[in-house]
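Reopening closed ticket. The problem is back. First fold of the pair:
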Amino acid sequence: MIYPGLAPGDVKVLRSDQAQITLPPPKIVNIVIDDKQTKVWDRQITWWTPWVPFNPDLERQARLAARDEIEKAALEMGILDQARHNEEESIRALLQIFGMKSVSVGRQYRHLSNPQPQCRILIRMPAYLIVDLEITDPAAWASYRSAVTAVVQNHGGEYVVRGGATIVLEGDWETQRLVVIRFPNQVALNAFWDDPEYQPLKELRQRAARAKVIAVEGV
């Protein structure tokens, strides 16, 4: 069981950090029956029915019928779905070796006249929300800090930097507090930023601190 070879149009680089791979449906291409381990016996021919003529094509017909039954049973057991799943996992693992931190897998279906499924794998890099803060109201900031973590986590975000000590190594960059949050991808970051649950917290943050906020995709 294999996937047919990919055509040039099946792999598209959307951006430097995002690609799209379309896989054709898997199919069974070969079934092997071990001739040494299988025998065909004609029940009509016995020592008491010598008049039944021998059929030299019987064994070939029996093996063809056996292959058909094996393929039917394999399809009913979901072997193609398992093959598709294994292929997606293999591609995901391969891309992660090359530094892809997040690989989301979706499905695309062809025109209804040919409804066999295809797999579409979107590769997205993590996205970082970077906030340069000057806290003006510590009490309001404490309220914001205690409430915002759950919203961040709801969108797969995790804090990478949260107010640690900073040292300026070059230039005149002055910062009082730096916060960096990593999200699985830019879609997740945008979902957090636009989340209705975050909007009142955003207003609370704006009252508690002056901030510069940027989003950047990374590795």
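Second fold of the pair, where the issue appears:
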Amino acid sequence: MIRFFRKRIDFNHYPFKINEVPLPLKNKESPFYPQGIEGELKRINQEIYKLRVVLESNWKSLSKILNSSIKRDENFIKKLLLVMDGLEAATDLGKELAEDNEIKDWVEGVAITKDRIADLLNMLGITPIASVGNVFDPNLHIAIGVEMGNDHTQNIIIREELKGYKLGNRVIRPAEVVVAKKD
């Protein structure tokens, strides 16, 4: 069945003789004319091809923009992580040296700033990589040292020199660790 102008025509029970053609098919410009249908299909295919080319071009440019944006964001996050490292070092050193109340207050202020940055990183989905006590994973850690001895299990991380971070499953900065090795 084909629909012409909201009226259904069933060609199995069509009332015309075979030589007679319904009015819409007599017009060669009509898309329902057999040659008109072929021409219309060619035109539609060309339009589809043009749209596909435009879509692919837009997709490539969008992916370039997204990749550059992600790299720019990663660079910013890496710089923010350096600030976080500095604040952690300052609080650790301050806790060791805190004897008078002025230093304790200063260390407390630095610790609050560090906690706020840690909360911000957590809100962005950036989490620290668990290291000490875990098995060394080359996808998450960089071994910067090995300690020989029988005190620890083979390939267990015994010390973390630089904290690593990841965004979801993607490692932003691997943790720099010291790994135990048996004699």
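Update: turned out to be a display glitch only; the data is intact. Residues 128-183 form a domain with the Nucleotide Exchange Factor Grpe; Chain A, domain 2 fold (CATH 2.30.22.10). Residues 1-7, 14-18 have pLDDT under 50 and may be disordered. Please close again.
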